[in-house]
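Submission sheet (multi-component)
Chains listed below:
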Amino acid sequence: MAKILSPEEAVKLISSDSSIMIGGFGNIGNPKKMIDLIADTELKNLTIIANDLGTPNVGLGRLVRNRQIKQAIGSYFTYNTEAAELYFEGKLNLKMMPQGTFAESIRAGGCGIGGFYTRVGVGSDVTEGAETKEINGRKYVFVEPLKADFAILRARKADRLGNLVYERTARNFNPIMATAAKFTIVEVDEIVEPGTLSPEEIVTPFIYVDVIVPVGRGE
Amino acid sequence: MRQLTDTEIRTRIAKKVAELLPDGGFVNLGVGIPTQAVNYLSPAKKLYIQTENGMLGVGPAPKTEADIVPNLINASRQPITETPGCCYFDSATSFAMIRSGRMDATVIGAIQVSERGDLANWALPGKGVLGPGGAMDLVVGVKDVIVATQHVANNGKHKLVENCTVPITGLEVVNTLVTEFAVFKFINKEMILVEHSSDVTLDDIKAMTSAKYTVANDVKAWEVD
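Outcome: structure written.
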Protein backbone atom coordinates (compact mmCIF):
# COMPACT_ATOMS: atom_id res chain seq x y z
CA MET A 1 0.00 0.00 0.00
CA ALA A 2 1.30 3.45 -0.92
CA LYS A 3 2.18 5.96 1.80
CA ILE A 4 0.35 9.26 1.79
CA LEU A 5 2.67 12.16 2.52
CA SER A 6 2.53 15.93 2.29
CA PRO A 7 4.67 17.47 -0.47
CA GLU A 8 7.03 18.83 2.21
CA GLU A 9 7.51 15.34 3.71
CA ALA A 10 7.92 13.73 0.30
CA VAL A 11 10.66 16.08 -0.86
CA LYS A 12 12.78 15.05 2.17
CA LEU A 13 13.04 11.54 0.69
CA ILE A 14 15.10 12.84 -2.22
CA SER A 15 18.86 13.15 -2.03
CA SER A 16 21.49 15.03 -4.00
CA ASP A 17 23.34 13.13 -6.77
CA SER A 18 20.26 11.02 -7.53
CA SER A 19 18.61 10.39 -10.88
CA ILE A 20 14.99 11.49 -11.13
CA MET A 21 12.40 10.87 -13.83
CA ILE A 22 9.89 13.69 -14.03
CA GLY A 23 6.59 13.23 -15.87
CA GLY A 24 5.09 15.85 -18.15
CA PHE A 25 5.16 17.29 -21.66
CA GLY A 26 5.39 21.05 -22.13
CA ASN A 27 4.46 21.75 -18.48
CA ILE A 28 1.30 19.61 -18.79
CA GLY A 29 1.15 16.54 -16.54
CA ASN A 30 4.25 17.50 -14.60
CA PRO A 31 4.38 17.42 -10.78
CA LYS A 32 4.47 21.20 -10.37
CA LYS A 33 4.31 21.34 -6.58
CA MET A 34 7.08 18.81 -6.06
CA ILE A 35 9.30 20.50 -8.64
CA ASP A 36 8.82 23.84 -6.92
CA LEU A 37 9.70 22.31 -3.56
CA ILE A 38 12.87 20.72 -4.99
CA ALA A 39 13.78 24.14 -6.36
CA ASP A 40 13.48 25.54 -2.81
CA THR A 41 15.97 22.98 -1.41
CA GLU A 42 19.75 22.69 -1.59
CA LEU A 43 19.46 19.45 -3.60
CA LYS A 44 22.12 19.40 -6.33
CA ASN A 45 23.95 17.26 -8.91
CA LEU A 46 20.65 15.83 -10.05
CA THR A 47 20.27 13.78 -13.20
CA ILE A 48 16.88 14.77 -14.57
CA ILE A 49 15.17 12.42 -17.02
CA ALA A 50 12.29 14.33 -18.57
CA ASN A 51 10.95 15.02 -22.06
CA ASP A 52 11.71 18.74 -21.72
CA LEU A 53 12.97 21.23 -19.14
CA GLY A 54 9.86 23.40 -18.98
CA THR A 55 10.27 27.06 -19.82
CA PRO A 56 12.66 29.62 -18.25
CA ASN A 57 12.16 29.49 -14.47
CA VAL A 58 8.86 27.58 -14.80
CA GLY A 59 8.52 23.87 -13.97
CA LEU A 60 11.89 22.18 -14.40
CA GLY A 61 13.13 25.55 -15.65
CA ARG A 62 13.46 26.48 -11.97
CA LEU A 63 16.02 23.70 -11.42
CA VAL A 64 17.87 24.91 -14.52
CA ARG A 65 18.06 28.47 -13.19
CA ASN A 66 19.23 27.22 -9.77
CA ARG A 67 21.90 25.07 -11.43
CA GLN A 68 20.72 21.98 -9.55
CA ILE A 69 21.00 19.77 -12.64
CA LYS A 70 24.16 17.84 -13.48
CA GLN A 71 22.71 16.22 -16.58
CA ALA A 72 19.32 16.20 -18.28
CA ILE A 73 18.21 13.35 -20.54
CA GLY A 74 15.20 14.01 -22.75
CA SER A 75 14.01 14.80 -26.25
CA TYR A 76 13.22 18.49 -26.67
CA PHE A 77 14.77 21.22 -24.53
CA THR A 78 14.27 24.09 -26.99
CA TYR A 79 11.36 25.68 -25.06
CA ASN A 80 13.80 26.53 -22.28
CA THR A 81 16.05 29.23 -23.75
CA GLU A 82 18.06 29.42 -20.53
CA ALA A 83 18.93 25.74 -20.82
CA ALA A 84 20.07 26.42 -24.39
CA GLU A 85 22.36 29.25 -23.27
CA LEU A 86 23.90 27.14 -20.49
CA TYR A 87 24.34 24.23 -22.89
CA PHE A 88 26.16 26.33 -25.50
CA GLU A 89 28.37 27.80 -22.74
CA GLY A 90 29.24 24.23 -21.74
CA LYS A 91 27.62 24.61 -18.32
CA LEU A 92 24.79 22.10 -18.69
CA ASN A 93 25.14 18.52 -19.86
CA LEU A 94 22.21 17.52 -22.07
CA LYS A 95 21.54 14.17 -23.68
CA MET A 96 19.03 14.50 -26.52
CA MET A 97 17.14 11.49 -27.79
CA PRO A 98 14.40 11.01 -30.37
CA GLN A 99 11.18 11.22 -28.36
CA GLY A 100 9.94 7.73 -29.17
CA THR A 101 13.34 6.22 -28.45
CA PHE A 102 13.39 8.09 -25.14
CA ALA A 103 9.92 6.76 -24.26
CA GLU A 104 10.78 3.22 -25.30
CA SER A 105 14.03 3.19 -23.30
CA ILE A 106 12.02 4.14 -20.20
CA ARG A 107 9.52 1.40 -21.03
CA ALA A 108 12.41 -1.07 -21.42
CA GLY A 109 13.87 0.09 -18.09
CA GLY A 110 10.54 -0.54 -16.42
CA CYS A 111 9.82 -3.96 -17.82
CA GLY A 112 13.09 -5.80 -17.30
CA ILE A 113 14.27 -5.61 -20.91
CA GLY A 114 17.96 -5.04 -21.62
CA GLY A 115 17.44 -2.53 -24.42
CA PHE A 116 16.23 -2.67 -28.01
CA TYR A 117 17.13 -1.99 -31.64
CA THR A 118 15.42 0.77 -33.60
CA ARG A 119 15.76 2.35 -37.04
CA VAL A 120 15.01 5.78 -35.60
CA GLY A 121 17.92 8.20 -35.79
CA VAL A 122 20.13 6.01 -37.99
CA GLY A 123 22.65 8.29 -39.72
CA SER A 124 21.97 11.21 -37.37
CA ASP A 125 24.14 12.81 -34.68
CA VAL A 126 21.96 11.53 -31.84
CA THR A 127 22.86 7.87 -32.46
CA GLU A 128 26.56 8.47 -33.08
CA GLY A 129 28.69 5.72 -31.56
CA ALA A 130 25.73 3.39 -30.96
CA GLU A 131 26.08 -0.30 -31.75
CA THR A 132 24.40 -1.10 -35.07
CA LYS A 133 22.87 -4.27 -36.45
CA GLU A 134 21.37 -5.22 -39.77
CA ILE A 135 17.93 -6.81 -39.38
CA ASN A 136 16.09 -7.97 -42.51
CA GLY A 137 18.40 -5.87 -44.66
CA ARG A 138 17.90 -2.62 -42.76
CA LYS A 139 20.19 -0.85 -40.33
CA TYR A 140 19.14 -0.54 -36.68
CA VAL A 141 20.84 1.08 -33.66
CA PHE A 142 20.92 -0.33 -30.15
CA VAL A 143 19.43 1.68 -27.27
CA GLU A 144 19.98 0.88 -23.60
CA PRO A 145 17.17 0.94 -21.04
CA LEU A 146 16.69 4.00 -18.84
CA LYS A 147 16.09 3.67 -15.10
CA ALA A 148 16.19 6.10 -12.21
CA ASP A 149 16.41 6.32 -8.43
CA PHE A 150 13.14 8.26 -8.27
CA ALA A 151 10.15 8.98 -10.47
CA ILE A 152 8.17 12.08 -9.54
CA LEU A 153 4.88 12.11 -11.40
CA ARG A 154 1.46 13.66 -11.70
CA ALA A 155 -1.87 11.87 -11.89
CA ARG A 156 -5.50 12.93 -11.73
CA LYS A 157 -6.53 10.54 -8.94
CA ALA A 158 -5.06 7.81 -6.80
CA ASP A 159 -6.83 5.38 -4.54
CA ARG A 160 -5.24 4.68 -1.15
CA LEU A 161 -3.48 1.62 -2.53
CA GLY A 162 -1.75 3.73 -5.17
CA ASN A 163 -3.74 2.83 -8.30
CA LEU A 164 -3.64 5.78 -10.69
CA VAL A 165 -5.81 7.40 -13.34
CA TYR A 166 -4.68 10.32 -15.46
CA GLU A 167 -6.33 13.21 -17.25
CA ARG A 168 -6.23 13.66 -21.04
CA THR A 169 -2.78 14.54 -22.44
CA ALA A 170 -1.41 14.95 -18.91
CA ARG A 171 -0.84 11.19 -19.04
CA ASN A 172 2.14 11.38 -21.46
CA PHE A 173 5.32 9.98 -19.83
CA ASN A 174 3.86 9.39 -16.35
CA PRO A 175 2.70 5.75 -16.67
CA ILE A 176 5.98 4.50 -18.15
CA MET A 177 8.12 6.43 -15.67
CA ALA A 178 6.10 4.92 -12.80
CA THR A 179 7.52 1.54 -13.82
CA ALA A 180 11.17 2.52 -14.31
CA ALA A 181 12.27 3.99 -10.98
CA LYS A 182 13.29 2.40 -7.68
CA PHE A 183 10.95 4.75 -5.83
CA THR A 184 7.86 6.43 -7.27
CA ILE A 185 6.24 9.54 -5.83
CA VAL A 186 2.98 10.71 -7.41
CA GLU A 187 1.35 14.09 -6.98
CA VAL A 188 -2.43 13.82 -7.37
CA ASP A 189 -5.50 16.05 -7.47
CA GLU A 190 -7.32 13.76 -5.06
CA ILE A 191 -7.19 10.47 -3.18
CA VAL A 192 -10.16 8.11 -3.14
CA GLU A 193 -11.00 4.86 -1.34
CA PRO A 194 -9.99 1.55 -2.99
CA GLY A 195 -12.92 0.27 -5.03
CA THR A 196 -13.98 3.76 -6.08
CA LEU A 197 -12.00 3.67 -9.32
CA SER A 198 -13.26 1.12 -11.80
CA PRO A 199 -10.66 -1.67 -12.11
CA GLU A 200 -11.06 -1.19 -15.89
CA GLU A 201 -10.05 2.46 -15.85
CA ILE A 202 -6.88 2.13 -13.76
CA VAL A 203 -3.84 2.93 -15.91
CA THR A 204 -1.01 2.48 -13.42
CA PRO A 205 -1.42 -0.53 -11.11
CA PHE A 206 -0.57 0.18 -7.45
CA ILE A 207 2.45 -2.16 -7.39
CA TYR A 208 4.44 0.69 -8.99
CA VAL A 209 3.54 3.46 -6.57
CA ASP A 210 5.37 4.15 -3.28
CA VAL A 211 4.16 7.57 -2.17
CA ILE A 212 1.05 9.61 -3.00
CA VAL A 213 1.10 13.34 -2.46
CA PRO A 214 -2.30 15.06 -2.50
CA VAL A 215 -1.98 18.64 -3.74
CA GLY A 216 -5.47 19.59 -4.90
CA ARG A 217 -6.97 20.18 -8.32
CA GLY A 218 -5.01 22.49 -10.58
CA GLU A 219 -2.17 23.02 -8.09
CA MET B 1 7.13 34.79 -61.79
CA ARG B 2 6.24 37.31 -59.13
CA GLN B 3 7.49 37.48 -55.55
CA LEU B 4 5.05 35.84 -53.12
CA THR B 5 4.39 37.12 -49.62
CA ASP B 6 5.07 34.86 -46.67
CA THR B 7 1.33 34.38 -46.15
CA GLU B 8 0.78 33.49 -49.80
CA ILE B 9 3.57 30.92 -49.63
CA ARG B 10 2.20 29.31 -46.49
CA THR B 11 -1.38 29.27 -47.78
CA ARG B 12 -0.37 27.72 -51.09
CA ILE B 13 1.62 24.96 -49.43
CA ALA B 14 -1.12 24.32 -46.85
CA LYS B 15 -3.78 23.99 -49.61
CA LYS B 16 -1.67 21.58 -51.61
CA VAL B 17 -0.90 19.47 -48.53
CA ALA B 18 -4.63 19.37 -47.67
CA GLU B 19 -5.26 17.94 -51.13
CA LEU B 20 -2.66 15.20 -50.64
CA LEU B 21 -3.81 13.97 -47.21
CA PRO B 22 -5.64 10.65 -47.48
CA ASP B 23 -9.37 10.53 -46.68
CA GLY B 24 -9.96 8.51 -43.52
CA GLY B 25 -6.24 8.50 -42.79
CA PHE B 26 -4.37 8.56 -39.48
CA VAL B 27 -2.28 11.70 -39.68
CA ASN B 28 0.28 13.46 -37.49
CA LEU B 29 0.87 17.15 -38.17
CA GLY B 30 3.95 19.16 -37.26
CA VAL B 31 4.05 22.78 -36.11
CA GLY B 32 3.15 25.65 -38.49
CA ILE B 33 2.11 25.02 -42.11
CA PRO B 34 1.15 21.37 -41.43
CA THR B 35 -1.42 22.38 -38.80
CA GLN B 36 -2.69 25.11 -41.13
CA ALA B 37 -3.39 22.49 -43.82
CA VAL B 38 -6.40 21.23 -41.86
CA ASN B 39 -8.17 24.55 -42.56
CA TYR B 40 -8.21 23.75 -46.29
CA LEU B 41 -9.51 20.19 -46.20
CA SER B 42 -12.47 19.57 -48.46
CA PRO B 43 -15.58 19.05 -46.31
CA ALA B 44 -15.95 15.51 -47.60
CA LYS B 45 -12.53 14.52 -46.26
CA LYS B 46 -12.22 13.07 -42.76
CA LEU B 47 -8.90 12.72 -40.97
CA TYR B 48 -8.04 11.10 -37.65
CA ILE B 49 -5.33 13.30 -36.22
CA GLN B 50 -2.78 11.90 -33.82
CA THR B 51 -0.59 13.97 -31.56
CA GLU B 52 2.50 12.27 -30.21
CA ASN B 53 1.99 13.48 -26.66
CA GLY B 54 -0.73 10.86 -26.44
CA MET B 55 -4.02 11.35 -28.27
CA LEU B 56 -5.82 10.00 -31.34
CA GLY B 57 -8.83 11.94 -32.58
CA VAL B 58 -7.60 15.50 -32.05
CA GLY B 59 -10.27 18.17 -32.58
CA PRO B 60 -9.82 21.79 -33.67
CA ALA B 61 -8.42 24.53 -31.46
CA PRO B 62 -10.97 25.83 -28.93
CA LYS B 63 -12.95 28.78 -30.37
CA THR B 64 -13.07 30.86 -27.22
CA GLU B 65 -11.23 31.07 -23.91
CA ALA B 66 -14.25 29.37 -22.30
CA ASP B 67 -13.83 26.32 -24.55
CA ILE B 68 -10.30 25.61 -23.33
CA VAL B 69 -10.14 22.15 -21.75
CA PRO B 70 -7.69 21.55 -18.87
CA ASN B 71 -4.73 19.26 -19.53
CA LEU B 72 -5.39 19.05 -23.25
CA ILE B 73 -2.66 20.21 -25.63
CA ASN B 74 -1.06 19.01 -28.84
CA ALA B 75 2.65 18.43 -29.32
CA SER B 76 3.08 22.09 -30.31
CA ARG B 77 1.72 22.91 -26.80
CA GLN B 78 -1.41 24.52 -28.27
CA PRO B 79 -4.84 23.90 -26.72
CA ILE B 80 -6.98 21.45 -28.70
CA THR B 81 -10.38 19.81 -28.25
CA GLU B 82 -11.76 16.28 -28.22
CA THR B 83 -13.72 14.55 -30.98
CA PRO B 84 -16.23 11.73 -30.40
CA GLY B 85 -14.27 8.48 -30.08
CA CYS B 86 -10.96 10.13 -29.31
CA CYS B 87 -8.62 8.32 -26.94
CA TYR B 88 -5.57 8.93 -24.78
CA PHE B 89 -2.44 6.83 -24.26
CA ASP B 90 1.06 7.13 -22.84
CA SER B 91 4.09 8.27 -24.84
CA ALA B 92 5.51 4.77 -25.41
CA THR B 93 2.21 3.60 -26.89
CA SER B 94 2.03 6.76 -28.97
CA PHE B 95 5.41 6.15 -30.59
CA ALA B 96 4.68 2.44 -30.94
CA MET B 97 1.83 3.34 -33.31
CA ILE B 98 4.12 5.78 -35.11
CA ARG B 99 7.13 3.46 -35.54
CA SER B 100 5.13 0.38 -36.50
CA GLY B 101 3.76 1.87 -39.71
CA ARG B 102 0.13 2.33 -38.68
CA MET B 103 0.08 6.06 -39.36
CA ASP B 104 -0.82 6.97 -42.94
CA ALA B 105 0.81 10.38 -43.22
CA THR B 106 2.86 12.93 -41.36
CA VAL B 107 3.48 16.48 -42.46
CA ILE B 108 6.64 18.17 -41.26
CA GLY B 109 8.89 21.07 -42.16
CA ALA B 110 12.43 21.02 -43.51
CA ILE B 111 15.65 22.95 -43.39
CA GLN B 112 17.04 20.84 -46.26
CA VAL B 113 15.93 17.85 -48.33
CA SER B 114 18.44 15.92 -50.42
CA GLU B 115 17.85 14.35 -53.82
CA ARG B 116 17.73 10.88 -52.19
CA GLY B 117 15.03 11.96 -49.76
CA ASP B 118 17.27 12.62 -46.76
CA LEU B 119 15.67 15.11 -44.42
CA ALA B 120 17.32 17.70 -42.18
CA ASN B 121 14.73 19.52 -40.11
CA TRP B 122 15.69 19.71 -36.47
CA ALA B 123 18.90 21.60 -35.86
CA LEU B 124 20.70 24.55 -37.34
CA PRO B 125 24.14 24.58 -35.72
CA GLY B 126 24.23 27.15 -32.91
CA LYS B 127 20.58 28.14 -33.33
CA GLY B 128 19.44 26.96 -29.92
CA VAL B 129 17.44 23.95 -31.04
CA LEU B 130 18.01 21.31 -28.43
CA GLY B 131 16.68 17.91 -29.33
CA PRO B 132 14.79 16.32 -32.19
CA GLY B 133 11.47 15.84 -30.35
CA GLY B 134 9.36 13.31 -32.26
CA ALA B 135 10.52 14.13 -35.80
CA MET B 136 13.07 11.32 -36.14
CA ASP B 137 10.52 8.73 -35.04
CA LEU B 138 7.82 10.06 -37.37
CA VAL B 139 9.96 10.06 -40.52
CA VAL B 140 11.05 6.47 -39.99
CA GLY B 141 7.67 4.99 -39.17
CA VAL B 142 4.95 6.80 -41.07
CA LYS B 143 3.80 5.56 -44.51
CA ASP B 144 3.75 8.89 -46.35
CA VAL B 145 6.27 11.40 -45.02
CA ILE B 146 5.13 14.70 -46.52
CA VAL B 147 7.60 17.53 -46.20
CA ALA B 148 6.05 20.99 -46.45
CA THR B 149 8.60 23.72 -47.02
CA GLN B 150 9.34 26.96 -48.79
CA HIS B 151 11.22 26.12 -52.02
CA VAL B 152 14.19 28.42 -51.31
CA ALA B 153 15.26 29.84 -47.92
CA ASN B 154 14.62 33.53 -47.22
CA ASN B 155 18.36 34.20 -47.54
CA GLY B 156 18.28 32.77 -51.07
CA LYS B 157 19.99 29.49 -50.18
CA HIS B 158 18.62 26.37 -51.82
CA LYS B 159 16.77 23.97 -49.56
CA LEU B 160 16.41 21.15 -52.12
CA VAL B 161 20.02 20.07 -52.33
CA GLU B 162 22.34 17.33 -53.50
CA ASN B 163 23.44 16.47 -49.94
CA CYS B 164 22.20 17.84 -46.62
CA THR B 165 24.85 19.91 -44.86
CA VAL B 166 23.04 20.40 -41.54
CA PRO B 167 22.22 17.65 -38.98
CA ILE B 168 20.16 14.82 -40.42
CA THR B 169 16.71 13.83 -39.14
CA GLY B 170 16.48 10.70 -41.29
CA LEU B 171 18.13 9.14 -44.35
CA GLU B 172 16.00 8.36 -47.43
CA VAL B 173 12.80 9.01 -45.52
CA VAL B 174 10.90 11.64 -47.54
CA ASN B 175 8.07 10.33 -49.74
CA THR B 176 6.45 13.58 -50.85
CA LEU B 177 7.83 17.12 -50.95
CA VAL B 178 5.53 20.12 -51.28
CA THR B 179 6.72 23.68 -51.89
CA GLU B 180 4.83 26.77 -53.05
CA PHE B 181 5.90 25.94 -56.62
CA ALA B 182 6.25 22.18 -56.87
CA VAL B 183 5.36 18.70 -55.69
CA PHE B 184 8.06 16.02 -55.85
CA LYS B 185 7.75 12.30 -55.14
CA PHE B 186 10.64 10.10 -54.04
CA ILE B 187 10.43 6.64 -55.57
CA ASN B 188 13.30 4.15 -55.31
CA LYS B 189 15.68 6.90 -54.09
CA GLU B 190 14.81 9.01 -57.13
CA MET B 191 13.36 12.49 -56.92
CA ILE B 192 10.59 13.11 -59.44
CA LEU B 193 8.77 16.37 -60.18
CA VAL B 194 5.09 15.49 -60.48
CA GLU B 195 3.38 18.89 -60.26
CA HIS B 196 4.24 22.56 -60.48
CA SER B 197 2.29 25.76 -59.96
CA SER B 198 1.02 27.53 -63.08
CA ASP B 199 3.11 30.66 -62.39
CA VAL B 200 6.46 28.92 -62.89
CA THR B 201 8.09 27.09 -65.79
CA LEU B 202 10.13 23.91 -65.57
CA ASP B 203 13.21 26.10 -66.09
CA ASP B 204 12.23 28.30 -63.12
CA ILE B 205 12.07 25.21 -60.92
CA LYS B 206 15.40 23.95 -62.19
CA ALA B 207 16.99 27.30 -61.30
CA MET B 208 15.89 27.10 -57.67
CA THR B 209 16.64 23.42 -57.09
CA SER B 210 20.18 22.08 -56.55
CA ALA B 211 18.95 18.53 -56.08
CA LYS B 212 18.95 16.35 -59.19
CA TYR B 213 15.47 15.22 -60.19
CA THR B 214 13.60 13.91 -63.18
CA VAL B 215 10.37 15.33 -64.54
CA ALA B 216 7.44 12.92 -64.64
CA ASN B 217 6.07 12.26 -68.15
CA ASP B 218 2.64 13.32 -66.99
CA VAL B 219 3.79 16.33 -64.93
CA LYS B 220 0.84 18.58 -64.16
CA ALA B 221 0.52 22.32 -63.66
CA TRP B 222 -1.84 23.48 -60.90
CA GLU B 223 -3.65 26.79 -61.28
CA VAL B 224 -2.65 29.50 -58.81
CA ASP B 225 -3.61 33.17 -58.48
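Remark: Residues 6-222 of chain B form a domain with the Glutaconate Coenzyme A-transferase fold (CATH 3.40.1080.10).
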